[in-house]
Amino acid sequence: MSGLSRLSLNTATTKKWTLEQAIEGCVRAGIPAIAPWRDRVAEAGLERSAQRIREAGLRVSSLCRGGFLTAADPEGQAAALADNRAAVNEAVALGTSELFLVVGGLAPGEKDIQAARQRVADRLKELVPVAADAGVRLVLEPLHPMYAADRALISTLNQALDLAAPYAPQEVGVAVDTFHVWWDPQLEASIARAGREKRLASYQVCDFNLPIAADALLSRGMMGDGVIDFATITGWVRQAGYTGDIEVEIFNQDIWDADGDQVLATMKERWLELVQPFA
Amino acid sequence: MSGLSRLSLNTATTKKWTLEQAIEGCVRAGIPAIAPWRDRVAEAGLERSAQRIREAGLRVSSLCRGGFLTAADPEGQAAALADNRAAVNEAVALGTSELFLVVGGLAPGEKDIQAARQRVADRLKELVPVAADAGVRLVLEPLHPMYAADRALISTLNQALDLAAPYAPQEVGVAVDTFHVWWDPQLEASIARAGREKRLASYQVCDFNLPIAADALLSRGMMGDGVIDFATITGWVRQAGYTGDIEVEIFNQDIWDADGDQVLATMKERWLELVQPFA
C-alpha cells in the first residue's frame, strides 16, 4: 500500500484551483482522497462534481462545510437550517458521511457568549435528525480561540465532545485540526476521550506559523513550517483508534499563490516525513 | 468612596509616557493605583521610581513582569533566574507583593510543548523560594492561546492553577486578564476554583478587538470596543472573592498614539460604565 493511502487534499489548500483542477491534481499526484469545499462544488455543479470525483476514483473524506448556526433572529436561524439541510444533501450526493460544521461566532453586536453557545446546542437539536436521516454525521470542529468571536464558539475538543454528548456517535462527531488545538493543555486527554466515545470523525493537519499573519485566518502553514509536533499529536490520534483519511487544509497566501502541482508535491513530502509514519 | 477606588493604570496602556508622566497622569485623573512595567522603572531608576510613586500617594497593584522561564539551555535558564530574582527585588522596592510572570514560549526551533511546559514547572521550583523569602507572590498569567508558541505556554486559567498547585496560595497566584481568557468554556468554573484556592492575585481588563490587528499583540482594546462581556466576567471575579485593584492594560497602536490624558479619561468612563458596577 502506498504511503499516501490515507492522504486527502482539502481543496482550501489549492484555493485557486477549480474543483476539476483539484481532482486532476490529486490524480496526477497519486492522492487518493479529496475534501471539497461547498463553494467549489457549487461552481462545478453538484451532480457534475460527484460524477467527476467518482470517475477519477477519489474518495471524498468530508464536505467543508456547514455550520454558522448562531444567528439570534428567527430569520437568520431559518436560513442557517436551510443552508445546513442543503449541505447534508450535498454530502449525500458526493458520497461522504462526514459534514464539517464551523458553528459560527457571536451575533452582530452580541457579547453574551454563553447565550450564543446555547444557540449552537439548540440548532443542533433541530439539525441532527435531518442529517441522521440522510446518513450524514455532523462533525463539530473546534476552532482556535482566536476565531471564537467571529467564526466558531467551539474552542476546545472537550467542548465539542460535550456538545456532541446528547447524540449517538454516528450522528455527531468531532474533528481534530492540529492548527486549532495544538496548544490545548488537555489535548491528549481530549483526543483519548474522543476515541473512547467513538466520535473521532476527522483528522486534519497543517502547521501553526509564526508570526501570525496580518490576516489571522491565513496563519495556517505547510506541515514543518511552524511550531506543531505532528509526531506526538498524530500518535495520540492513532492511539484513539482513528484509521480514516487525514486531510491537509491550509489557508496561506503564499501557498495559494504557488503552483498547485508544486504545492501537492511539497505536501506529499511533508506528509511522508512528518505525519504518515505516526498515523 | 470614589468609583475609581479600585482602578489601576497598567503603564503599558500609556506606552509613550515615561513612568513619571504616568504617575502624574494618574494623580491628575484621580486614579489611585499603578502597575508599572519594568522597562519604565529601569528608565527612571528603581529607587527614584519607588519614591515618586510613594510621594504621589499611589498604590502599586503589581509589577509587570518577570517570566520567560522556558530556555532549554543552562545559560538561558541561569539568565532567566537572574532576571527574575532582579524582578523580585524590584517588586519589593516598589512596595508590591504581586509579580506577574509571562512564562515564555517554545525554545527556538523547539516543537515539544510538553517538555517546554515542564521547564516552566522546573524553573518555578527554583524561583518560588526566592520570591517567597522576599514576601513576593509569583502571579502566573494565562495568555491567549494565539501567543502560546512565542510568549506564554500557559493558555488557560485551569492550567495556571495546576502549575500553582504545589505551592502555597501566598507564594504562587494567578491572574485573570479578560483579553486572554474570555473565550474559555471553563472560565466560570476556573475563576471559582481560583477563588476557592485563594490564588486570585490580579484582575486585568481590556477588550478583544476584531479584526485581530496585523500585529496580533496589539489587538487589545478599550473596554467596550470589542466583544467581551465585562459584567459577567467581573461578576464571576467578584463572586470568587477578589477585592483587589483592577488594572487596565491595553496594547493598541491607536491608544498609544492618542493623548495620554484623553486615554485616561476614556478609560475612567468605560470603567465606571462597564466594570466598576459589577466589581
SS element count, helices of chain A: 11
By secondary-structure content and strand pairing, the structural class of chain A works out as alpha/beta
Oligomeric organization of the protein chains: homodimer
The strand order across the widest sheet of chain A is 3-2-1-11-8-7-6-5-4
Elements of chain A, N to C (H/E): EHEHHEEHEHEHEHHEEEHEHH
The whole-angstrom Rg of chain A is 18 Å
CATH topology of chain A: TIM Barrel
- Ranges of chain A where pLDDT stays below 50 over 5 or more residues in a row are none
Can you identify the CATH class of chain A? Alpha Beta
Number of strands of chain A: 11
- Using the alpha-carbon principal axes, give the shape of chain A: globular
Amino- and carboxy-terminal Cα gap of chain A = 14 Å
Share in β-strands of chain A: 15-25%
Name given to the CATH architecture of chain A: Alpha-Beta Barrel
Helix percentage range of chain A: 40-55%
